[in-house]
Amino acid sequence: MYTGPVRRFLPFLIVGCLWCIPALSAAASVSVSLAPEELNLGQRMAASAAHAVVRLSGRGDAIAMRYSSPAPIDCVVLITDGKAVPDLSTALVATLPLGKDLTIDLNVSASPGWSLGTHEYRVFFFSHASDGTTMERVTLVPASFWRLPVAALRHLFTSEPYLPASYHRLKGYRILGVAAPLVLLPVVILLLILTLALRRFRGRRLAACLMILALGFLLPSARFSLDLLAFAGRHLTMWYGDAPYEQAGSAYAIAEFLQSANYERATSAVSPIYLCSEGTSYIPSLLTYLLSPTRVVQKLPEGQTPVMLIAFQQPQTAKEGQAFQCGDRVFNNVKPLRSFADGSVVYSVPQP
Amino acid sequence: MMSVPAFGVSLALLLAEGWCAVNLVLFSRSSREGLLLCLALALPFAALFNVLLFLLFMLCGIPLTTVSLWIGHACIVAGLLLVRQFLPPTGHDSDPALLSSLRLPRIIIALCLFILAGALVYGFAHAWLLPPFQYDSFTNWLMRSKMSFLEQRLVFDNAFPHEAVRKPHYPFLVHALHLMANAGQSSWRDQLASGMTFLLSVSLLFGSFLMIRRVVGASLALFALTLVVGIPLFGLHLGEGYADHLLAEEGLAALAAFALYRSSGRKSVLLLSGLLAAAAVWTKAEGMFFVFLPWLLLALLSVRPLALRPLFPPLLLAAVWPVFLFLKGLAFTPHGSTDLLVDYHPESLRTVLSVLLYGGSFGPFWPLLFAGMVCLAIASARRSPGATFGGGDRRERLSLFLPGALCFAIVIGVYVFTPNVSYLLNGESFDRQLLTPAAMLVLPLVLCFAEFVKGRGEEG
């Protein structure tokens, strides 16, 4: 009779599959995914016809909502937990379908920031319709025991975010809200104790312990290698597919455009390029490098006019001959030269 | 349009120069193993020569043009070949006896190869095929290189028009390599600069592997390399030039060469080790404190006074940099005088522990490393009183932990006892600076393990 490993572990496999069925069938009918790293809520608000925010607090693994809408609704779920600046790498996005009196469950356990405990959520709704959208009920659904293993597995295989600061510090994997090493290390310690205690390993205890330690290191490293390969594939696809490149957006395309023959004389080292952007100094620093020796500035003395203006991912635009406002600075009679895939626009600014 | 032949010329000159240097000074021509090691260490050595050439050009006021760089390197190659004619060969390069020829289980080897492949694919793609993305790449490193390329001289200030150049007082091994990679190009090419840094990384890692292999065999050498490259943050750094991973690689290579010196007794290998440690001084401001001084301490404690002569060239090479800084009136530490304000910052401890125990940058590396050390220590202590520790002096073997331990203590000390605590708390530099002590602690652990296995085998 065949007593190989498959037959030996078959009962466990069957139980595992049966376990997953309720978890999978209980999943939201709307697919949920991690928010892109360049998520900009301000931009989304400005671009939507109508928006709303709901705050929730409690224990649960899904958010149930009952609503009606003549157009799809983009939904962003942030796990805030009282923080002034929530961690956007744990945010979820989904698109709710249009319809009347629809009931949807949004699976929040898909977020790597989720755990069984109490959480505070902020749920943003961005509708494409200016009226007719009503949100009747938004509540937390108590956690389902069936979902835990699936959630844990999903967390383990959630990719590390790739950010401009990743080279300083990696966020690391979290499983049900716990840092992955804190899940792994007790398992390693338990295996070491069993190895030292069980008679079965007599004579080869050291070898077994070192094997456990080696695997304890190599398996997480192998997991991260999967992410490294995924980054390489994703970035090559973005770059050679002319798509916006992670948080850099269209910065490289903007620099290439401005350095092309037509504008080389215009972008002399003497006249700076004005950059209208928000957020950190990442984009200004990147564009400064790409366009150097041409200076890229975000402030100009009153009376000084730049030759070019880069409106980087700005919600406001201007047509030819119109004025473009960036903060409290207004540039009159601008001429849009080129628009980019991430919503950025390059304008020429007439000299006085 | 990128000129591939121009890059080819620059690379060929560097490799020829490095090959001649390694071959001439350190190894004979007769061993295949020695030839591979010459090839692996050619670029790191060429990078050192490149730095010295740049220094000479600076002193003589020669601009850093394609012609001056190529002629300069061609002269160095010619000079090395000429010297080689007059020096006798060093004799057959015999391999030292292996500490251990242990073969690891296939699953371990397979995992090691997968991890290394993932890191190398990522590094190659991001260095050669993709644009710079990480913050410090284009502020601290590529920006200075680009400005230096455009002005045909190394930039040492951040006054107008260099206000975007950060850390202009940093050593310039990496920047010089970037400039050499871009020699012959009509405009600045990021990919050539980053690609050259990647080649330097691969060279140092391959060279370390070959040296460790000579001591403990291929299996354990592969495992040791994977322990370093498999650190999540290390793999990520292979893609762009921050230089923290280069410091770690130079530290690892210097220690690997030192272990090989211990096994072979050859003074030329000690010289090799010293030059690799000295290269760290020219790579990053921390290189002197994190790599070279700990290495020097190890060498002074380990080498007999009468055999210290091979230490002088590395000492001289390392000493030139602080003298240069003094003459130029530049800061010696990354952040200037604030680095020397000593005060205890208790708020740092929690973050230090979180990075070491469960942070994403290292995963379970540090707890498992310490656990491995404890396991080996307990196992060694429980062995029969008459047993030797692999036939060698135990204190000698344990002394290899000294550079890594010292580097670790210095890194922790810098972030707990100086204003650099802010960079720890905001997650800016602490994690990546821990890469160097991590790399330098892996090697002695693997060597101790190999020693232990050999000792058990001799007991029977």
Please specify the SSE layout and strand pairing.
The complex is a heterodimer of chains A (about 350) and B (about 450).
Chain A (H helix, E strand, L loop, with lengths): L4 H21 L7 E2 L6 H7 L2 E9 L3 E8 L3 E7 L12 E5 L2 E9 L11 E9 L6 E8 L5 H10 L17 E2 L2 E2 H18 L7 H36 L10 H8 L2 H4 L8 E4 L5 H10 L4 E2 L10 E4 L12 E3 L2 E3 L3 E5 L5 E4 L4
Parallel strand pairs in A: 11-12, 11-13
Antiparallel strand pairs in A: 1-5, 2-7, 3-6, 3-8, 4-5, 4-7, 9-10, 13-17, 14-15, 16-17
Helix pairs in contact in A: 1-3, 4-5, 6-8
Chain B lengths: L3 H22 L6 H29 L5 H21 L19 H24 L5 H17 L21 H9 L8 H27 L1 H12 L2 H6 L6 H21 L2 H17 L3 H16 L9 H17 L19 H11 L6 H17 L12 H6 L1 H17 L3 H5 L4 H4 L1 H25 L1
| Terminal residue distance of chain A | 93 Å
Shape of chain A: flat
* Total individual domains of chain A: 3
Q: Which protein chains make the most extensive interface, counting residues with beta carbons within 8 Å of the other chain's beta carbons?
A: A-B, 57 and 67 residues
Average per-residue pLDDT of chain B, rounded, comes to 89
Quick structural gist:
The complex is a heterodimer of chains A (about 350) and B (about 450). Chain A has helices at about 5-25, 40-45, 145-155, 180-195, 205-240, 250-260, 260-265, 280-290; strands spanning about 35, 50-60, 60-70, 75-80, 90-95, 100-105, 120-125, 135-140, 175, 180, 275, 295, 310, 325, 330, 335-340, 345-350.
